Amino acid sequence: MIIIFDQENQLHTKFKTMKIVKFILSLLFGLMFINAGLNKFLNYMPMPELTAEQMKLFGAMAEIRYLMPLVGAIELIGGLLFIFPKTRALGAIVIFPVMVGIILHNALFEPSGLMIALPFFVINLWIIADNWNKYKPMVCS
């Protein structure tokens, strides 16, 4: 009986630890996207050095005047949703297309950036997998 109680206590401790880890990672993830979204509107962070190919790409995106404000709004809203446990599942789905774009951009133009982008992508996928039961009714009929 004591062994069973100890196993339950260990399970409870692991669950509590995972909940804390998930909250901390979600908070950092959300704050990163809030910062990125605000920067799209306020331009307070300096632009990194761009290659000619990247300048051409960003020039093309700048031609679509609403694109960067739209991405900024999605990052801001998704980041806010990601922080709070009740809205985290929605935030993970809202942010997912932006994360795919970040991964593709880094893979194609700046592979060194994958060292930062991939862990955030894994966090996004983890939260989606963790909330899969909330998405199931939309996917499976």
From TrEMBL:
Question: Per the database record, which ranges form the Methylamine utilisation protein MauE domain?
Answer: 18-104
Keywords from the named record: Membrane, Transmembrane, Transmembrane helix
Q: What topology does the record note for this protein and the membrane?
A: Multi-pass membrane protein
Subcellular location per UniProt equals: Membrane
Which stretches are transmembrane? 20-38, 64-84, 89-108, 114-132
Q: Which Pfam families match?
A: MauE
Q: Does the keyword Kinase apply?
A: no
GO terms of biological process kind: methylamine metabolic process
Example of a GO cellular component annotation carried by this entry: membrane
**Protein name as it appears in the record:** DoxX family protein
Q: Which organism is it from?
A: Sphingobacterium spiritivorum ATCC 33861
